[in-house]
Specification:
7-stranded mixed β-sheet, Rossmann fold, Subtilisin-like protease, 39 strands, S8pro/Inhibitor_I9_sf, Glucose Oxidase, domain 1, 7-stranded parallel β-sheet
């Protein structure tokens, strides 16, 4: 037997053995749950012919007395971005397995959550006339973006492959079929479509294939929306009920899309997400856009963090949503430094609607309502608010299901407070109770942020200040009245962009020295393709169907960055993921179109780098950043060494027991990150120095001069103050020394900018003082 034949036979035997363990024992998993087991393949005993045999043997050895094989089935094997497997185990068996040689880490299954036009023009990559300002030569380079989400609706015009060249021969992906999805649904635009459900079924139960597509077809709409935002083909006349009419197109319209369906009706599970990242890397994606997030406890206990590290090692850029936990501080997800963490901001487009109160006061809100039940602007309707006052919440004021009395609200406009149940659902509750309209008012948690919705009855949303005025009028007038009018689409809104109130905020509590989020991008009222199976409101009672929908969330901002990363990859195919992220961060801007510091929608005051990171992305400048801060996988490992990980915990990332810490970084602040965050003792005269290295990616002979805006209470000295480059890709280093002049009780912020004749390379600065013990 030849060596090749023997190898093939061993692989077939391993596949047969794995197949015996694959599948999910639905209904037979009492006392067990899914665990992700990370393995050091280098430690596989010589007695095993293949790592799958080794995994199966370990699982068999850990079996508790009285259990059977049905409870021990391996549901995934990982081998590209991550080495290991996912398996059903009891808690006792997991503890036993953890003690075996070669087992690096055991992670319990985790549920992740979805973080849920005009943006090409707003971002400057398309002219107002609709022509691309990016060179056609750039679009000829094939870049493939993997989207982990709820699947894809292939019939959308956004996924037309008209005029596209054949799929790159390097692509190894597949077009998986199932109910409602055939091989013909893939094309030169949708080059791959896969599903991952074993972890979901192990935790929740079998997917009801009559009620849900157990295929890449998108039941929800979220995945279609994000995929179209990344790389949708241009579609003229796109709109939602006449709102936002124009040409809808993705950030990288010539890029390919590979859809990885990891989310189902009951959620998204870490073992499936990990399997999708692992497969996407093997398939050959260049960029991953992941609008998902879970809890953050540590770098080495977060399966998405670990998988993204493996993807980064293989040259894949990973963009993840920051989360919708704002405006609360320390609400970020996906904070690992090798991930591009994206917050959300507004654009200069809005959908205004007006409340005209019976006392003559006019207040402005937003709405996407389009229906037959428009209220007459010449008539005043009775207005009612079910709360006792505007400071003490009442379940009825939230318009929760079953809380409104039809005898009180029938024929009236109802004021509802935002919170707990979905915004559009509140309007449905009002409609069911006989109300003729709704005013949705923000509370302190949302401030002045306005998010438009496609309501099922005449309804609009107003900010906190207007909401207080409306509720005060309603509660103090014996005959309160109002009417609502809807004004369509307006552009040129000032100020814009504004940081969305819902966008999750820093600091990064795992490592204060890594400033997060990294950047913000459009994430409010984004128009993109939609599933033909879902209503625009996502309510089951809503029978409307649309080709495009308008959504808000960091789920929408993440694919903007994923798409722009794909554009940068076309211009600079040899750049590392860190170089691409550096280009996005150092060219970002922090002033709005009224030339003021980006505002925070939750406070209407200036935002800080804990809200906006490096700032708002500027795609055209990112294509030519001048200088970049590059980071290698070894650099990230040295960063992890500063986090006091044990050798076993470090092995989660090194995948080997032989990689020691070189201690090349004095602290985490020395990682060659595009932003700078330092933590120093609380005392006058305290000092700290960090080092950075920049690579010249601009003209061969370039001279840069530094300008510093120091944080309050600090003196900042940069050495040298000039960088003279003589060739392209030359690297030069500099130091930044921070000295405390007057310690501050809260973090303070500043900036460091390197400028030549054409480039401005900006780094946000954060400075935090540790209290003296």
């Amino acid at each position: 037997m030849t060596g090749t034949s023997a190898g093939c036979l061993l692989l077939r035997l391993a596949a047969v053995l794995l197949t015996a363990y694959l599948g999910v024992a639905v209904g037979k998993n009492h006392g067990t749950k899914t665990y992700i087991v990370q393995m050091a393949k280098s430690e596989m005993p010589a007695s095993f012919s293949h790592h799958l045999n080794w995994y199966a043997s370990l699982v068999e050895s850990s079996r508790s007395y009285g259990t059977n094989g049905e409870q021990q089935r391996i549901i995934y094997s990982y081998e590209h971005a991550f080495n290991g497997f996912a398996v059903r185990l009891s808690e006792e068996e997991a503890e036993q397995l953890e003690a075996y040689s070669g087992v690096v880490n055991i992670l319990p299954e985790t549920a992740y959550h979805l973080h849920t036009t005009r943006s090409p023009v707003f971002l400057g990559i398309e002219s107002v006339s609709g022509t691309s300002v990016v060179s056609p030569a750039i679009a000829e380079y094939d870049v493939i973006v993997g989207v982990l989400d709820t699947g894809i609706w292939p019939e959308s015009l956004s996924f037309s492959d008209r005029g596209m060249a054949p799929v790159p021969v390097r692509w190894k992906g597949a077009c998986e079929t199932g109910r409602g999805f055939n091989r013909s649904n893939c094309n030169r635009k949708i080059v791959g479509a896969r599903i991952f459900y074993r972890g979901y079924e192990a935790a929740v139960g079998a997917i009801d294939e009559k009620a849900e597509f157990k295929s890449p077809r998108d039941q929800d709409g979220h995945g279609t929306h994000t995929a179209a935002t990344v790389a949708g083909a241009p579609v003229d006349g796109a709109n939602l009920f006449g709102y936002a009419t124009g040409t809808a197109r993705g950030m990288a319209p010539s890029a390919r899309i590979a859809s990885y369906k990891v989310c189902w009706t009951g959620g998204c599970f870490s073992s499936d997400i990990l399997a999708a990242v692992d497969q996407a890397v093997a398939d050959g994606v260049d960029v991953l856009s992941i609008s998902l997030g879970g809890g953050v406890s540590s770098y080495y206990r977060d399966s998405l963090s670990i998988a993204s590290f493996g993807a980064m090692e293989r040259g894949v850029f990973v963009a993840c949503s920051a989360g919708n936990g704002g405006p609360d501080p320390i609400s970020l997800t996906n904070v690992s430094p090798w991930i591009a963490t994206v917050g959300a901001s507004t654009m200069d487009r809005d959908f205004p609607a007006t409340v005209r109160l019976g006392n003559g006061v006019h207040l402005t809100g937003v709405s996407l309502y389009k229906g037959q039940r428009n209220l007459s602007p010449q008539r005043q309707y009775s207005l009612v608010y079910m709360g006792a006052n505007h400071t003490s919440p009442d379940p009825r004021s939230l318009c929760l299901e079953g809380t409104l009395d039809p005898r009180v609200v029938a024929g009236k406009i109802v004021v509802c407070d935002r919170g707990i149940n979905p915004r559009v659902q509140k309007g449905q509750v009002v409609k069911q109770a006989g109300g003729v309209g709704m005013i949705l008012t923000n509370t302190a948690a949302n401030g002045e942020e306005l998010v438009a919705d496609s309501h099922l009855l005449p309804a609009l949303a107003v900010g906190e200040t207007a909401g207080k005025a409306i509720k005060h009028y309603t509660l103090t007038s014996s005959h309160a009245t109002a009417t609502l009018t809807f004004e369509g689409t307006k552009v040129g809104i000032r100020p814009s962009p504004v940081i969305a109130a819902f966008s999750s905020r820093g600091p990064n509590f795992l490592t204060l020295e890594i400033l997060k989020p990294d950047m913000v991008a459009p994430g409010v009222n984004i128009l993109a393709a939609w599933s033909g199976n879902a209503s625009p409101s996502s309510l089951t009672v809503d029978l409307r169907r649309v080709s495009f929908n308008i959504l808000s969330g960091t789920s929408m901002s993440c694919p903007h960055v994923g798409g722009i990363a794909a554009l940068i990859k076309t211009r600079h195919p040899d750049w590392s993921p860190a170089a691409i992220k550096s280009a996005l961060m150092t060219t970002a801007y922090v002033h709005d179109n009224s030339l003021q510091v980006l505002k925070d929608a939750s406070t209407a005051g200036p935002s800080t780098p804990y809200d906006h990171g490096a700032g708002h992305i500027h795609p055209l400048k990112a294509l030519d950043p001048g200088l970049i801060y590059d980071i290698t996988p070894d650099d990230y490992l040295e960063f992890l060494c500063t986090q006091k990980l044990t050798p076993t915990q470090l092995k989660v990332f090194t995948k080997s027991s032989n990689r020691p810490c070189n201690h090349s970084l004095a602290s985490a602040a020395d990682l060659n990150y595009p932003s700078i965050s330092v933590v120093i003792p609380d005392g006058d005269g305290s000092t700290m120095t960090v080092r950075r290295t920049v690579t010249n990616v601009g003209p061969p002979n370039s001279k840069y001069h530094v300008k510093v805006s120091p944080p309050k209470g600090a003196e900042v000295v940069v050495e040298p103050i000039n960088l003279q480059f003589s060739r392209r890709y030359q690297k030069l280093s500099y130091t930044v020394s921070f000295r405390t002049k007057a310690a501050q009780a809260s973090p303070e912020f500043g900036a460091l900018i390197w400028r030549d004749e054409t480039h401005s390379v900006r780094s946000s600065i954060a400075m935090t003082w540790l209290p003296q013990s």
